[in-house]
Amino acid sequence: MSIEALVENPPLQVTSLFSSEEFDRSVMQTYGRFPLALERGEGCRVWDTQGREYLDFVAGIATCTLGHAHPAMVAAVTEQIQKLHHVSNLYYIPVQGELAKFLIDRSCADKVFFCNSGAEANEGAIKLARKYAHTVLGIKEPVILTAHASFHGRTLATITATGQPKYQKNFDPLMPGFEYVPYNDIQAIEEAIDRLDNPERQVAAILLEALQGEGGVNPGDIAYFQRIREICNAKGILLILDEVQVGMGRTGKWWGYENLGIEPDIFTSAKGLGGGIPIGATLCKKFCDVFQPGDHASTFGGNPFACAVALKVCQTLERENLLSNVQQRGEQLRAGLKAIVQKYPNLFTQVRGWGLINGMELQPDISLTSIDLVKACMAEGLLLVPAGPKVLRFVPPLIVTAAEIDRGLAVLERAIAS
Ligand SMILES: *Cc1c(COP(=O)(O)O)cnc(C)c1O
Question: From CA 25, how far away is CA 201, in angstroms rounded?
């Protein structure tokens, strides 16, 4: 994300005691930060250290499923921290089992492994696929195909899986065993599989996002994914879907793959799963027992605290009927964005997305970037996040109301007009 380019900001007094200059002296400068320090939140609103209110259509980047300070989350956090917050996976953790059961009852998965982030969930998927390739398929050098413009995380294996050179630069040598293809291009997948078809080095898995989030909010094509599923079935290749950004109700269905009419063999979840509490999951169908005791682990993974909160987030999503809210609010938002695109055809090209993950694309040949618009909206009290230099991304909490969508659209129009 070109947000890294965002460095030339004026110093910001973060609190009365702490300036952004001091912050940058002690915190590694891995992020381009907006000149804004947030202190408090409630529902879809957040307040900065000066008490200014913002409508939050970023939600910690598609993470705060229930918004901020949701009473159900506050209660779950409070109850669990008073009871038991962390024990090792040396022991059975009842609420981890409950959360796993909830997830498999609402997906195609048979079993779950819990970890702490999206990258770690994808690492688990990659390890599982490689072990399956070695021990079941007998492939000596398994290759995983991933897509251009994809995003799978920042660990070494996941920056390698990520088909964007800007995330890999200067971190070589990268991991062996990955090849890249253009997204939504079935011919490219078929050619890569044929090209690599020899006993030593073969395609063992295809890792894709159902909708590319960071890469510009590019929805997967139904025919493309259905054909991939057929190819995978015919050749014994695993289909892994990275559902870190689009899973957990974000698209108006529990999982992104439900929009494509297919089921993956492995998929991963993180961002929205804990509603902002760090938790990730690798979910698998059928051959989950390829992982044996000792093969994979994570100290914090699936601890009682994270699992109790994630379970509460899941139950609340269902109890408050949020999937249908996501569908309705998503349609409302897209209709409003499309009206803006029609009004300003020399600024925007199109709106695309599913449920409450939507992108508004800027004309390629104008100097205006998504960062410029994010800054203009911020000045008017609306938080948005870019998805690349030319796409504005809208990922509000799944509890967003019709009135808040209208307010967000009005602020955006004001920002564009200015
Ligand atoms: C955010 C994201 C990741 C990385 O998740 P982290 O929790 O930051 O490691 C991986 N894949 C996708 C699709 C993402 O959107």
Answer: 47
Q: What is the CA radius of gyration of the chain?
A: 21
Do the domains at 3-57+321-417 and 71-319 have one common CATH topology? Answer: no
- Check residue 201 and report its DSSP letter: E
Counting atoms of ligand 1 from 1, which one is nearest the CA of 209? 13
pTM: 0.96
Name all residues whose Cβ lies below 6 A of ligand 1: 117-119, 122, 151-153, 209, 213-214, 242, 244-245, 270-271
Helix, coil or strand: residue 351 = strand
Distance 56 CA to ligand 1 centre (A): 20
pLDDT above 50 (res 130): yes
| Ligand 1 geometric centre to CA of 269 (Å) | 9
Q: What is the DSSP letter of 294?
A: T
Tens digits of per-residue pLDDT, 108-128? 999 999 999 999 999 999 999
Q: Is 187 strand, coil or helix?
A: helix
Residue 321 tokens, joined: 């009927």
Residue 19 is predicted with a pLDDT of: 85
Minimum-distance ligand 1 atom for the alpha carbon of 117: 7
Domain ranges of the chain: 3-57+321-417, 71-319
First to last CA, the chain: 25
Strands (E) in 215-279, as ranges, are 218-219, 238-242, 266-269
264 three-state secondary structure: coil
> What is the dotted CATH code of the domain comprising 3-57+321-417?
3.90.1150.10
Which of 58, 64, 244 to probe ligand 1 with, by most ligand atoms within 8 A of CB? 244
Q: pLDDT for 364-393, tens place per residue?
A: 999 999 999 999 999 999 999 999 999 999
Closest-lying ligand 1 atom to the alpha carbon of residue 243: 13
The CATH topology of domain 71-319 is Aspartate Aminotransferase; domain 2 (3.40.640)
Q: For the segment 169-228, what is each residue's pLDDT rounded down to a tens digit?
A: 999 999 999 999 999 999 999 999 999 988 789 999 999 999 999 999 999 999 999 999
pLDDT, tens digit, for every residue of 159-177? 999 999 999 999 999 999 9
Q: Which of 1, 214, 255 to mutate to test the pocket of ligand 1 (most atoms within 8 A of CB)?
A: 214
Average pLDDT, the chain: 95
